[in-house]
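User: Structure please.
Assistant: Input sequence and predicted structure:
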Amino acid sequence: MVHLTVDLIAKSRKHFKKKRGLSFPEYLKTLTHLHFSNKNIEHIGDLSMCTNLTVLYLYDNNITYIGNLSFASNLTHLYMQNNSITHVDNLHNLQNLSKLYLGGNRIAVVEGLEQLHQLKELHVENQRLTPGEKLLFDPRTLDSLAESLCVLNINNNNIDDIRDLAVLKELQHFSAADNKLCSIEELEDVFSHWPQLFLMDLSGNPVCKNPKYRDRLITVCTSLEALDGREINDLTREFLINWKASREAKKKKIISMMSGALIPYSLTNEFNMGQDLQPGHSHAIMQRWKPQQSLRTEKFQFL
């Protein structure tokens, strides 16, 4: 079992050359970046002497558990993608963490990030989940990230519902490709809460087959610059927004006309005159009303 420790750092040729002129403890205090990707590491040992560590590269290893990072209060970037991590633990002391990469692990629930108020980017794509399982988010974590998170990558995680993500109102870049999103109405509702969104990728979801998918999302996401890898020019956006406004205005006008014509004049006139309805009279009035009602319904359906 390979452990990441200060002894492993000492044995590293890359670091051995740098430490000349300094004692090893002094050198460890100067370290800001540690590169130990693809080293068959299974465990993070005691690195507490690396007090100024800001960037840690541990991707492509065999780590199953996040631990022994409580010392790293200066850490801003943590790369732990493509390991075998099952739970997001022990990150509460990393209060300066800005970018967290956890893609390609075995995480079923995104949680434990409540203290990371500086987190700008979260990458949890391609989790190796059991069949039928989908990636979930702890509401407490989402609430804590609502004011800070700008980039979220949840590609390929069997996700079919993103309504809980609506609280992430600072999002600018959202990737949810190759999931199971189906409802265009649900997406429109969520994206209406993200006024700063400018990059989005939903390719590979069933919703992309909706004939008006692209047009409808462009009109909701008014700051969007690219959707599914295709740029959106200002002329296209302006045309679609004007088209949507015109369509909604026309719809409101039709509804207004219909609501004012639900009771025909002849019927309201007889009621307003205070005439008593004789037996059979109401039936005759309703018979006169039915053709008008049918005609207006057909007209509405045609429009």
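The longest strand covers residues 41-44.
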